[in-house]
Design brief:
By secondary structure, the chain is an all-alpha fold. The chain has eleven helices and no strands.
Length: about 240
């Protein structure tokens, strides 16, 4: 080890205890959400389940919004982990594209965690606003970045700029250019539109299934989803010049 490099200092006992207590609070809040849904989240009930007072809980999360922000960030990170793991997995059918595998990882996580999925994408919680540019935004961008990479893997920026996207108004094109560079606007405007188009198909089907609107399809929901994702991927790639 070079003389000017030192191993990171180990967290103190107090820091480790605080981290452990924070995780306990988050786990208790997630359990309450799983049982009663996001809108029933109560700091008093979370504290009571842990045998602590609300005042003691405030030492870790100063208010309800701080707890919700931590829960949303954690859920987004778990979802992103599931999407990345699905994309990296060895498929039973080698012909299945990584983008389709990533989409199926998204679907599986949403089905396995419907209440947390509702926390992320359901009706907004009353009187809660995520901090602008805060941890929830960063976690969401991490996940969307995975889909962006898998959707456009192998294409150059020049190809993406020449993609056959629907005619964009000058106002919309200018708006896309003003978005943060590590978001969808890191892409040329036509590619950003194609990404949003693909995302709409993917997310819309998952929402319909998680909320029970396609239950009449029974065990065929997975087959429909894979077919739709294949078709979406084919359509997007057909719009990008070789």
């Amino acid at each position: 080890m070079p003389a000017d490099e030192h191993p990171p200092a180990r967290p103190s006992l107090r820091e480790r205890r605080r981290a452990a207590a924070t995780q306990e609070i988050l786990a208790a809040a997630e359990s309450q959400i799983a049982e009663q849904g996001p809108h029933a989240l109560s700091l008093r009930a979370v504290a009571r389940s842990l045998g602590m007072t609300v005042q003691a809980l405030y030492h870790y999360f100063p208010n309800r919004d701080a707890l919700i922000t931590a829960l949303i960030t954690k859920a987004y990170d778990a979802l992103a982990d599931a999407v990345q793991a699905a994309a990296d997995a060895t498929p039973a059918d080698p012909a299945v594209p990584r983008m389709v595998m990533a989409a199926e990882g998204y679907r599986r996580w949403a089905i396995a965690h419907p209440e947390l999925f509702q926390l992320l994408y359901g009706t907004p919680l009353r009187q809660y606003a995520a901090p602008v540019g805060g941890p929830t935004t960063e976690a969401m961008l991490r996940m969307s970045g995975i889909f962006q990479r898998e959707l456009f893997d192998g294409f150059t920026e020049a190809q993406l700029a020449a993609a056959d996207a629907p005619e964009l108004s000058s106002e919309f094109r200018e708006y896309l250019g003003q978005l943060r560079p590590d978001g969808p606007s890191g892409l040329p405007a036509p590619a950003s539109v194609l990404l949003l188009h693909a995302w709409g198909h993917l997310h819309g089907l998952v929402v319909l299934e998680v909320f029970g609107h396609t239950s009449f399809l029974g065990d065929h929901q997975a087959e429909l989803f894979r077919m739709a994702m294949r078709n979406t991927l084919t359509d997007v790639h057909s719009r990008i010049p070789a």
